[in-house]
Design goal:
Strands 1, 2, 3, 4, 5 and 6 form a six-stranded mixed β-sheet that branches. The protein is of the alpha/beta class. α3 links the parallel β5 and β6. The protein has helices at about 15-25, 60-65, 85-95, 115-130, 135-145, 150-169; strands at about 1-10, 30-35, 45-55, 55, 70-80, 105-110. α1 (about 15-25) packs across α6 (about 150-169) and α4 (about 115-130) packs antiparallel against α5 (about 135-145). The longest helix is centred in the C-terminal third of the chain and has 17 residues, at about 150-169. The protein starts with a strand and ends with a helix. The structure holds flavin mononucleotide. The site of flavin mononucleotide has 20 residues, from α1, β3 and β5.
């Protein structure tokens, strides 16, 4: 089975997951590992990953994923907001809209990924202006929680996820 791992990662969180998956699949034939590019070799399974950019996958990934036909696709993502399976479901449903119906979707995996400090600075600034804003407080807590991710458990879960998918297919 030929496998391509195609991902977009700005600050390396998603790349950490991509590398864990690559490491886990070292007995398989990985024909491509990297960002979307014209020289991606034909594969049977495409394991596609992205960071979350304003509620969806990064545009280079959406552009790439919508070119695929008659392939098996597994999707992984990192997102600043975490610990909520429903949120991840919603994120994947948006990615799914870009996947042609001729493909077979094998599954998806998400975990939380740390965000740039500038994001917290902005929240803190807003908090000064609106000290009683409960939503902002939750956002700051979430930011701090995200700083730990992806952690060893996330990498382990990503590996378990991909192993179960590849074994079934
Ligand atoms: C411009 C920008 C937009 C983002 N939009 C979202 C978003 O809508 N939802 C979310 O959960 N995280 C969002 N994030 C957080 C990133 O998706 C998250 O930190 C991710 O792990 C970054 O992955 P990377 O290190 O592979 O680039 C955003 C980050 C940036 C910089």
């Amino acid at each position: 089975m030929k496998i391509a791992i195609v991902y977009a990662s700005n600050t390396k969180n998603t790349e950490m997951i991509a590398k864990a998956i690559q490491e886990e699949l070292n007995d398989e034939e990985i024909v491509y590992f990297g960002k979307p590019a014209s020289e991606i070799r034909e594969a049977d399974v495409y394991i596609i990953g992205s960071w979350t950019d304003k509620g969806n996958a990064y545009h280079t990934i959406l552009d790439f994923i919508q070119t695929l036909r008659n392939k098996k696709i597994a999707y992984f993502g990192t997102a600043g907001y975490g610990k909520d399976e429903k949120y991840y479901q919603t994120l994947f449903s948006r990615v799914k809209e870009h996947i042609d119906g001729s493909n077979q979707i094998l599954g998806y995996f998400f975990c939380q990924g740390k965000m740039p400090l500038s994001v917290k600075d902005r929240y803190v600034q807003m908090m000064r202006e609106h000290p009683d804003d409960a939503k902002l407080k939750v956002s700051i807590e979430n930011f701090d929680e995200a700083l730990e991710h992806p952690n060893d458990d996330d990498l382990k879960h990503a590996k378990e996820w991909i192993t179960s998918i590849i074994n079934k297919n």
